[in-house]
């Protein structure tokens, strides 16, 4: 299986809406062993000036990996999920993610580079919150590189 | 108490912590994140793809390491940018039923740079497992009061 070089520059539009729930923030926070009260206690979060529970700094990976799945599962891409290794990751928060946010992600394939028999693919998700009146507010930009190992790598 | 920008200097230590990891933690992270790649919970599958055994999600390690920064900053929302490269796997031994850790990750942090205009501090994290750095260029940008 070979990676389709024409992937570079491809975009996948925002698909499903991700509703950020309080219990999901608490579950994710426990899963990364976070203990800060702003993830668990609404009063504590509001005491810091936030509207609701604050998601941990890497929470956006849930939305970003859902967006990435569109690419990985795209039969035209030629990516074998079981040969994917996560190489790097970056989160840039334009504002924090809060419980109650309704988020969508646009996926952009920024780079495809052959590496041995495999490829390094760089993707970027632009994550927006839906606002009243069909508006979109920028929330986070996530970037990740995945290495798709070739045969015998 | 949260640090203020004025009291910081480059090179300042922000402390450290050890993170104990079990196979159950990886199952919890898989469920919470939606990343069910079997290399993170199935030994037979992991060794079948030439890994030494079950390894932690890179995103588990990245997510757990930044808690040191969230707590130091006093508000997790102060972390405005966070990045890393994943360089080595964290191999998690099966200790099911024993109460022992399957791996221990050591995290420490120091102020790497200060930006007076933006009032941000870059915290550089050192994340070590088994004597080797597992994250490289693990940097969190923190906005301070």
Rounded average pLDDT of chain A: 93
CATH architecture level-2 label of chain B: Roll
In the predicted model, the low-confidence regions of chain A spanning at least 5 consecutive residues are: none
Per the CATH scheme, the topology name of chain A is: Thiol Ester Dehydrase, Chain A
Q: Please tally the β strands of chain B and state the result.
A: 6
In the CATH hierarchy, the architecture of chain A is Roll
Instruction: Estimate percent helicity of chain B.
Output: 10-25%
Radius of gyration based on Cα positions of chain A: 17 Å
User: Helical amount among residues of chain A, as a percent range?
Assistant: 10-25%
Q: Would you report the number of β strands of chain A? A: 6
How would you state the average pLDDT of chain B, rounded? 96
Shape of chain A: elongated
Classify the oligomer: heterodimer
Number of alpha- plus pi-helical segments of chain A:
3
Helix/strand order of chain A = EEHHHEEEE
The level-1 CATH class of chain B: Alpha Beta
User: Which segments of chain B are poorly predicted (pLDDT under 50) over 5 or more consecutive residues?
Assistant: none
What does this structure look like?
- The complex is a heterodimer of chains A (153) and B (145).
- In chain A, 18% of the residues lie in helices and 37% in strands.
- Chain A has helices spanning 22-31, 42-47, 61-72; strands at residues 11-12, 18-19, 84-93, 102-115, 118-131, 135-148.
- Chain A has a single domain (9-148), classed as Thiol Ester Dehydrase, Chain A, CATH 3.10.129.10.
- The mean pLDDT of chain A is 93.
- With 153 residues, chain A is of the alpha+beta class.
- In chain A, a hairpin with a 2-residue loop joins strand 4 and strand 5 (118-131).
- Chain A is built from three helices and six strands, in the order ββαααββββ.
- In chain A, strands 1, 2, 3, 4, 5 and 6 form a six-stranded antiparallel sheet that branches.
- Chain B is of the alpha+beta class and 145 residues long.
- Chain B has a single domain (9-143), classed as Hotdog Thioesterase (Thiol Ester Dehydrase, Chain A, Roll).
- In chain B, 22% of the residues lie in helices and 35% in strands.
- The longest helix of chain B has 11 residues, at 23-33.
- The mean pLDDT of chain B is 96.
- Strand 3 of chain A pairs antiparallel with strand 2 of chain B.
């Amino acid at each position: 299986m070979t990676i389709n070089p024409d992937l570079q520059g491809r975009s996948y539009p925002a698909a499903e809406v991700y509703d950020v729930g309080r219990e999901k923030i608490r579950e994710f926070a426990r899963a990364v062993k976070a203990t800060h009260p702003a993830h668990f206690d609404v009063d504590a979060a509001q005491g810091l000036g936030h509207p609701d529970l604050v998601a941990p700094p890497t929470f956006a990976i849930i939305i970003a990996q859902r967006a990435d799945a569109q690419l990985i599962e795209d039969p035209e891409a030629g990516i074998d999920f079981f040969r994917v290794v996560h190489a790097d990751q970056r989160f840039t928060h334009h504002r924090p993610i809060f419980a109650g946010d309704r988020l969508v992600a646009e996926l952009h394939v920024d780079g495809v580079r052959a590496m041995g028999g495999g490829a390094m693919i760089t993707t970027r998700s632009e994550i927006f919150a839906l606002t009243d009146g069909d508006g979109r507010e920028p929330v986070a930009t996530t970037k990740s590189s995945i290495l798709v190992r070739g045969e015998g790598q | 108490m949260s640090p203020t920008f004025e009291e910081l200097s480059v090179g300042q230590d922000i402390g450290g912590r050890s993170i104990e990891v079990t196979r159950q933690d990886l199952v919890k992270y898989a469920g919470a994140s939606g990343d069910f790649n079997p290399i993170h919970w199935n030994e037979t599958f992991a060794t079948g793809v030439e890994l030494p055994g079950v390894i932690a999600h890179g995103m588990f390690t990245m997510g757990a390491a930044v808690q040191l920064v969230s707590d130091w900053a006093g508000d997790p929302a102060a972390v405005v940018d966070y990045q890393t490269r994943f360089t080595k796997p964290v191999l998690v031994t099966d200790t099911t039923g024993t109460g022992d850790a399957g791996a221990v990750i050591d995290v420490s942090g120091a102020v790497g740079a200060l930006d007076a205009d933006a009032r941000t501090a870059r915290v550089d994290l050192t994340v070590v497992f088994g004597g080797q750095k597992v994250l490289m260029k693990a940097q969190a940008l923190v906005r301070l009061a």
